[in-house]
Amino acid sequence: xxxxxxxxxxxxxxxxxxxxxxxxxxxxxxxxxxxxxxxxxxxxxxxxxxxxxxxxxxxxxxxxxxxxxxxxxxxxxxxxxxxxxxxxxxxxxxxxxxxxxxxxxxxxxxxxxxxxxxxxxxxxxxxxxxxxxxxxxxxxxxxxxxxxxxxxxxxxxxxxxxxxxxxxxxxxxx
Length: 174
Hints:
Layout (H helix, E strand, L loop, with lengths): L2 H23 L2 H16 L11 H29 L11 H11 L3 H12 L4 H8 L3 H18 E3 L6 E5 L3 E2 L2
Antiparallel strand pairs: 1-2, 2-3
Helix pairs in contact: 1-2, 1-3, 2-3, 5-7, 6-7
């Protein structure tokens, strides 16, 4: 089958096959997807297709098998999800995390970005410089200033051993 013959075959058969597969799957979009995938697979074999060998039947068979395979994958996934119960409860962020986030929010964006990338994401200074498009020295200066600013916003609470945000004028907040 030549490319032109295949294009004509596609134009004539796609709507018909999509209708048939929609009846089979119960979902028109799913039917379009599997018929399209079957045509993609047929495209690679178009030279072997002969008009008298029922290429439409081949496409329909491939599309139906694809639909069944998708159903099986979806069913296996659903069974897996049903077997894995959700956790009883998800713990919220601890006081250390909350204090750190509050303190980070008080930093300028440039300092916050390098602090997070370097200390929380474990990205090297050189990589940060490359990704942000600033010199290595600028990244180092932002890290230094950011750590200094964080130190002003975080204090060690001796009663519970955890850091907390501090306001300069009024003392402990959290």
